[in-house]
Amino acid sequence: MSEANTYEPSEHPVGEIVDRLDELAGASSVSLADVIDAFGSRSFLPVMMVPALLVVSPLSGIPFFSSACGLTIAFIAAQMVISRDQLWLPDFLTKRQVEGARARQAVAKLRSVAGWLDKHAKNRIGPFVTAPARKWVQIMCMLCGAAMPFLEIVPFSSSILGAAVLFLSTALLARDGLFVIFGLATLSTAIIVPLIVFDVI
Question: So where does this one cross the membrane (predicted)?
Fold first, then answer.
C-alpha cells in the first residue's frame, strides 16, 4: 500500500473520488489495493467513501459484493475511531477484484450522485461534525458497514446502508452537520426495510 500518495479534497471532493475511480476502471480489473494506492494509505475518509459509492451502484447485485464493501467500511471506520495513523486492511479485502468494464459502468451511474452531494454539501451545523460528535459519526459508519453482510439477502438494504455511509462521510468531508441528519434518516430507513421484508415473509 502506497504512502506517497495523499488525498487533498477539492471544491468537488465526491466528484474527484469518482474521477479517480474512473481512471482506475481503465484497467482490466480494479482491486481495493489499487484504490488505496490511488488515494494514499492515510486517506481514510475518501477510501471509505469508495465502497459506499460502489454499494449504491449496480455492482451491489454481484453476490457477496455488498458484504465485502460493508466489511471494508467497518474496518476503515473502526480505524478512524481509534485514530490510527495509517490504513490497514486484510488481504482478503484488498485482493478482491472487479472487472474494469463493470467498474466503468458503475462509475458512470455514480456521477449524478457525486454531483448532487458536491452541490448541496457545505460548512454548517459544526457541532455535529466536530469532537466529540465526529467520533459518533465514525461509529455509525462502522455499524452500517458491519451490518451489510448480515443483510445481504434483504433487497436494497445494503444500498440504503451505503447511502447512509455516503451522507455521513460527506458530512465529515465537507463539515456539513445537515448531512449527518440525512445519514441518520437514511439509516432509519435501512432499519425499517428488513423488518418489513421479514414480516412479509
Answer: 52-78, 150-172, 178-198
